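Hello,

I think I submitted the pyridoxal-5'-phosphate job twice by accident. Can you confirm which output corresponds to this input? Input:
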Amino acid sequence: MLYENYEQVVANVKKACERSGRNFQDITIIAVSKTKPLSDVEELISHGVVEFGENKVQEMVDKYEHVSKPVHWHLIGHLQTNKVKYIVDKACLIHSVDSVHLAREIEKEAAKKGVIAKILIEVNIAQEETKFGIREDEVYGLIDAIKDMPHVHVMGLMTIAPFVENPEENRVYFRKMHQLSLDIKSKCIDNIDMNVLSMGMTNDYEIAVEEGATMIRVGTAIFGARNYNI
Ligand SMILES: *Cc1c(COP(=O)(O)O)cnc(C)c1O
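Support: Only one job matched these inputs. Its output is below.
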């Protein structure tokens, strides 16, 4: 059942790739399992799914420790500095870096554990007050501060687009993100890669793929609606 949902997302991504002349191989689908039981994760793993996303540190660590096979865990939610130490060697990619302060903490904890943490810079591209992430005009400043950190490697950008009725409304934001990542890439800054563009969720992932996403983060369309009251 969950795998059928997953396959439907795959089919939709393939169609979006065809529409926009992209390669399906260039898109990573992250199954966002937040609030869902480990048995749901295991069901997908049994079908070969290996990319999972969680937005809370404790939940990611719990699943990381109890899962039957090693898979890739993406930390996609807001990260508090005091929790960096729990995930810095467990997350394959931290999608939500939005301050020098947080980057410094990741550098410190990654150095302690002898790893290089892969991160994305979270951009609040629509400048919504309720969202984490930095403004577009703050991105170069943050990159400049991170580029000399030996245990932090910037892989690209991430955004959470506004919640809208009609996903077409987000196309403009996805386009802006793509352009921003191309601009940064063209500067060839040491230690800064721009090969990852994490954008698109259940509501708008097809548009995001058409506009250049390389990672989409899909929860509801795979696992069903979340219940936060249990
Ligand atoms: C929950 C979440 C998602 C997945 O949202 P859906 O709409 O259920 O697909 C993606 N990205 C982030 C950062 C999230 O917190």
